[in-house]
Design brief:
The complex is a heterodimer of chains A (307) and B (413).
Chain A (H helix, E strand, L loop, with lengths): L10 H10 L6 H13 L3 E4 L6 H11 L4 E5 L6 H4 L1 E3 L1 H13 L5 H8 L5 E3 L1 H5 L9 E5 L6 H13 L1 E4 L3 E4 L5 E6 L7 H5 L2 E4 L5 H11 L5 H15 L9 H13 L7 H11 L3 H8 L1 H17 L1
Parallel strand pairs in A: 1-8, 1-9, 2-5, 5-8
Antiparallel strand pairs in A: 3-4, 6-7
Chain B lengths: L1 H29 L6 H14 L4 H12 L5 H12 L3 H11 L12 H20 L30 H13 L7 E9 L4 E2 L1 H8 L11 E7 L3 E6 L8 H14 L3 E6 L3 E3 L1 H4 L4 H11 L9 H16 L5 E5 L10 H12 L2 E6 L12 H6 L5 E4 L6 H9 L8 H10 L1
Parallel strand pairs in B: 4-5, 4-7, 7-8, 8-9
Antiparallel strand pairs in B: 1-3, 2-3, 5-6
Helix pairs in contact in B: 1-2, 1-6, 2-3, 7-15, 12-13
The chains are: A alpha/beta (307), B alpha/beta (413).
Chain lengths: 307, 413
């Protein structure tokens, strides 16, 4: 396993790689990921909260044994907290030191003060400095939380993998990082940025894939319980709720039920633990009414029919 | 000999496949997707990188390049199914791509198949354009119905005077919430917060002898505006005026999202961002299918809350609700949905073109339901020109815009 950092050579290999890392991808995701690795293009993942967008980056960095650099976006994120910042205090000290020694040549001072020694590197700049053959995975998480102004910084980085610092010049990546951008779509990202990426909509998994995920992530759940959980959650997603439960919620729910030593679903347990699955009062109220009862009965009879 | 044959095939293949992808991209563009020349080049490269192995992989390879919005998925899916319909076409393509299959080259009748597919696709498009748009003139003032009637609409073109007047009115417009503070900074010359970065950079100009403070302050921006406007029969007389207003507003502000509803909800943001007002209005007219029909305010707000609110209200948006509030459906849906809408935006402003304070009679249940949940209530006294809308919005908020005043009037009755 000396060559873990090597990129997969085919779509099948990409799929296998993710599976080894405990992520169950569908064919579409494996294809897009393979293309983005091969073509060195950022991967733009959009989807509801909790469908496993961030997880892809984590698994990738794990499986390929590369450092994961994560940039969590928020409103007001700017160059000094995302790309670089000068260490003002140290620069001031340097100036005073030079004055004390009488070395006040203007050009030398400027070159000395604005050197890499005084540069504080933030996530985006660090991502451009990976060692050859082991470029980091750069995760730009929840891009939709920043304002539009920040997207403009990303354009240069994502298309040419370089950053321009006025005082120092242009810093270019020796080997481009593996860039993964995620968004929850609380606003639309500009087309100019999307154009530079490969786009993929991460959807809720179908029953078979959700079952596979559950088997990997919560292997201690009994077969009956897992089947019922998956069937129940799949039905919930058809109900037009305000917020559908994601895979993350399914896993949380499974863990909760395992902790409660449950072997099968019953109305009381569902009602007690529904807060793990649904996070909106309207949705919870709907499930706790007769609609929820009916749903559970349907799942049960479906299970019996399958046996 | 065998070598040259193989070479020829490869050269041939790299000529055919790009051509087919190009045609496919054109079809996507014709169907309204944004596909530029660069993405066609990308697509050809991607297919080369991925290698043609199966129909599924080919599908997702093209998908990753051409589809940049989730809404486009359905269009892509349909176009892919139609264009690469004959299984043979993809199979042949697979064969062509590998030099091994050189011998079977002659059997390939691509030209014929391709022209049939594109013919059927392109002729379908021409047919679509021939759909006629009947001109409807009905006056359904102060009536509401829940019935769904699908109609198309033609708007009279703008006269030059109208356009000039609109510009003037828009320049005077002051929105109720004009500017909000962001967490970003901008440089400032007066004494304020110290900006360390600029302070130090400028001090180095003097070799560090003089450290003069530079200042910065929080930047202020216009909050995004989301307009949800009623185009049902009872509002039919005004729809041209307020669409014109919305177009001008979209032109003036960066972030304006517009939704129109009668019996169904339509997002016309992209249509309204056209530069030319006539073109924008015409495209709106094409996009909307339920002009001057019934009203289902509750159901439409429900759809908005479910599908759009989290996407367009995220940045502290103010919502402008333009409706007469005449709701036909008699259930609790409206109350619930207007409450949810109120909770998810910075400010909810209701613009009602049909109400006047003098002789105010609130019989309609819909109005009574909406009133308690809005932050501001702005009646428009006449709505013949865009300037009326502008002035209604620009008035400073006072007691007349407080929904509680109106509620008290209701209880006094």
């Amino acid at each position: 396993m000396a060559d873990r950092t090597k990129l997969p050579e085919s779509i099948d290999a990409t799929e296998a790689l993710l599976r080894d890392g405990g992520y169950v991808p569908d064919r579409a995701l494996a294809t897009v990921l393979y293309l983005s690795l091969k073509m060195q293009r950022p991967l733009f993942l959009e989807g509801e909260a909790g469908v496993g967008k961030t997880e892809i980056a984590k698994v990738l960095s794990d499986c390929l044994d590369r450092p994961l650099i994560r940039l969590q976006c928020y409103e007001g994120l700017d160059v000094s907290s995302a790309v670089y910042e000068w260490n003002y205090a140290a620069q001031m000290v340097e100036i005073r030191m030079r004055e004390a020694t009488g070395d006040t040549n203007k050009d030398a001072m400027e070159a000395g003060v604005f050197s890499e020694r005084f540069l504080i590197k933030r996530a985006l700049l660090k991502a451009l400095e990976g060692e050859a053959g082991r470029a980091p995975v750069l995760l730009i998480d929840e891009l939709d939380r920043t304002d539009e102004a920040f997207e403009a910084f990303l354009l240069e980085i994502l298309s040419d993998y370089q950053v321009t610092i006025p005082e120092l010049g242009t810093i270019r990546a020796e080997e481009p990082p593996i860039v993964i951008i995620t968004t929850n779509r609380t606003r639309e990202i500009h087309d100019a940025l999307k154009r530079r990426c490969l786009y993929h909509w991460v959807d809720y998994p179908d029953a078979a894939r959700e079952m596979a995920i559950l088997n990997v992530k919560a292997p201690t759940a009994g077969e009956t319980l897992s089947n019922e959980i998956v069937a129940y959650v799949q039905r919930l997603r058809e109900m037009d709720l305000f917020k559908n439960p994601g895979v993350a919620e399914t896993l949380d729910w499974a863990t909760a039920l395992i902790e409660l030593d449950k072997l099968a679903l019953d109305p009381k347990t569902v009602s007690d633990t529904i807060g793990v699955l649904l996070k909106y009062q309207d949705d919870i109220a709907r499930i706790q009414s007769s609609e929820g009862q009916k749903l559970l009965e349907e799942v049960k009879s479906q299970m019996r029919a399958a046996e | 000999m065998a070598v040259s044959e193989a070479e020829k095939t490869q050269a041939d293949a790299s000529g055919r496949l790009p051509e087919n992808i190009l045609y496919f991209a054109r079809i996507l563009r014709g169907a309204g997707m944004r596909v530029g020349p660069s993405s066609i080049v990308e697509a050809v490269r991607a297919v080369e990188v991925a290698g043609l192995t199966s129909r599924d992989d080919f599908y997702w390879t093209l998908h990753s390049i051409f589809v940049t919005r989730r809404e486009d998925h359905a269009v892509f899916d349909e176009a892919f199914r139609l264009y690469w319909r004959s299984r043979d076409l993809v199979e042949k393509m697979l064969q062509m791509f590998s030099p091994m299959a050189a011998g079977e080259r002659e059997e390939f009748e691509k030209k014929a198949a391709q022209s049939r597919v594109s013919e059927s696709l392109f002729s379908g498009q021409e047919n679509k354009k021939e759909v006629e748009k009947p001109q409807i003139e009905i006056d359904a003032l102060l009536t509401a119905s829940g019935k769904e009637v699908l109609r198309k609409k033609d708007f009279a073109q703008m006269s030059a005077a109208e356009v000039t007047e609109a510009r003037l009115a828009m320049s005077k417009l002051m929105m109720p919430v004009e500017a909000v503070k962001t967490r970003r900074f901008e440089p400032m010359n007066r004494v304020h917060r110290i900006d360390p970065r600029r302070t130090l950079a400028s001090s180095l100009k003097t070799g560090g002898d003089l450290v003069l403070p530079k200042f910065r302050r929080h930047k202020r921006i216009h909050p995004p505006i989301v307009v949800i406007a009623d185009i049902s029969g009872s509002m039919a007389n005004y729809s041209r005026t307020f669409l014109h207003f919305l177009h001008a507003l979209t032109e003036k502000r960066q972030k304006v999202h517009t939704f129109l509803f009668g019996t169904r909800l339509t997002n016309v943001t992209r249509q309204l961002s056209r530069k030319d007002p006539d073109q924008a209005l015409a495209e709106c007219a094409d996009a909307v299918e339920d002009w001057s029909g019934g009203t289902r305010i509750g159901a439409n707000l429900h759809e908005f809350n479910l599908k759009w609110s989290r996407r367009v209200l995220g940045q502290g948006a103010i919502v402008l609700l333009i409706t007469d509030g005449l709701e036909r459906e008699q259930d609790d849906l409206l109350e619930h949905e207007i409450d949810r809408l109120h909770r998810s935006c910075r400010r909810l402003i209701w613009l009602n073109p049909l109400l006047r304070f003098e002789g105010f009679e609130v019989k309609a249940r819909g109005i009574r339901t909406i009133l308690p949940h809005v932050d501001e209530f702005r009646p428009v006294h006449s709505l013949d020109a865009l300037a009326d809308l502008c002035s209604a919005l620009s008035e400073p908020a006072d007691h007349r815009h407080d929904p509680r005043q109106w509620l008290e009037a209701i209880h006094a009755q």
